[in-house]
Amino acid sequence: MVIGAGHAGLAVSNELTQRSVDHVVLERGEVANTWRTERWDSLRLLTPNWQTRLPGLEYDGDDPDGFMTMPEVVDFIAEYGRLVDGPVRTHTTVEAVRPADGGYEVVANGQVWATDAVVLATGGFNLAKLPPVAKDLPAGLDSITPLQYRRPDDLREGGVLVVGASAGGIQIAEEILRSGRSVTIAVGEHVRMPRVYRGKDIQWWMERSGLLDERYDEVDDIVRARHVPSPQLVGTPERSTLDLNVLSEQGVRMVGRLASIVDNLAYLSGSLRNVCNLADLKMIRLLDTIDEWATETGLDGEVSDPERHEPTFIDENPQLTLDLGSGEIETVVWATGYRSDYSWLEVPVLDRKGEIRHDGGIVRDAPGLYRIGLNFLRRRKSSFIHGAGDDARDLTSHLANYLSSRTRSVGSITTTG
Fold it and tell me: Which whole number is the average pLDDT over 407-414?
């Protein structure tokens, strides 16, 4: 049983079909449902078109260096669904997954499915992750998350506070600013990264150098690596870099992390300079690694010269409070990350933070249960569309070996109700 018919679930279905493993894919909406319904209008992929590929299908248009819009992503995944032609049941909402008879019982749309194994391909962006301080926001302010945000025109008139400065936060901040509103961005931990480096897209360097193929069992701290924020990248026809310096130049006010709210007064962290300095340092280390690899492989003569970017500019005396009752800010956008929804998973495999315990997608203490589509699941590229193929191949290989060791027929699935 595969739960979820996004790009990862379809990649798993493709691999299971190749291995002649009987299976069913359950999807709560249409194929690529999350891409269809839970993204803002102007969003584009952070990866260039040439990197958009799945086993058996890759981008073949006339703009390889461009970045897909959400409708284009939906079309690509839908085309992949037709190519895979797997046993997908759409508009089938899973209500429960629980252990049963040495395997699992899946309840969906009033039916009960018995299966030897389950692959959870439900994505990692089901619910907005809100910080504890969100509950103290004054009642008079509008409060939304990127899952609810669609376009600036939907917001009430007045200034906007964007909390979070990763990929989503900086994109939303810039778009709202261009709509004519004043924007303040509260900056926490972030990853600064240029869109283009030495004449090549940064993802070209990440892929060619092998950084994106780094495995989960090759890093010193995989827990830390899985929680690194998404890089400050934006996909635009101009291939422009969007970082805090660019936002500041455009007129966005930059403040420190939102630490607490008492009555109408928001208190901001005084560590803004240190946070930005750390992001600058990590970017320099990444570019140094790229430069070393380019020299070792003889690419220096084929690309432009190494370059470095200006440090993030911070005011001498960063603001430490915001008066949320002054009327200057009318809306708060919580771009503070996402988390998976496991409310229907009745298998005791979650840690104290509500995250699934797994080793490279093989769920701990639950034989036959697998997870795909999470950040750095098996490789650094796991959360990207093009990372699903290798992860699906690895996991279905393990799954097939697991099924072959059982006495029941391989991939046995039955249903009642």
Answer: 54
How would residue 409 be classed by pLDDT, with cut points 50, 70 and 90? very low
What is the predicted pLDDT for the residue at 406?
82
Residues 199 and 267 in one domain: yes
Q: Are 189 and 324 contained in the same domain?
A: yes
C-alpha Rg value of the chain to the nearest Å: 23
3-state secondary structure of 178: helix
**pLDDT, average across residues 62-73:** 97
Q: Taking a C-beta distance cutoff of 8 angstroms, is the pair 93, 28 a contact? A: yes
Tokens representing 24 are 């069913």
Rounded to whole angstroms, the Cα distance separating 272 from 187 reads 7
Strand, helix or coil for residue 147 = coil
Picking from 287, 318, 334, the residue at the C-terminal end of a domain is 334
Strand order in the sheet with 159-163: 142-144, 329-334, 159-163, 183-187, 253-256
- Write out pLDDT tens, residues 389-408: 999 999 999 999 999 988 54
Which residue matches tokens 């430490």?
Answer: 320
Q: Interhelix angle for 388-404 vs 7-18, to 10°?
A: 50
Helix 7-18 vs helix 70-84: angle between axes, to the nearest 10 degrees? 20
pLDDT digits (tens, 9 = 90+) for 330-343: 999 999 999 999 99
CATH number of the domain where residue 54 is located: 3.50.50.60
**Which three-class secondary structure state does DSSP give residue 388?**
helix
In one-letter notation, the amino acid at residue 375 is N
pTM of the model: 0.94
Q: Please provide residue 171's backbone torsions phi and psi, each rounded to the nearest 5 degrees.
A: -65, -45
Nearest Cα residue to 307 out of 205, 414, 185, 173: 205
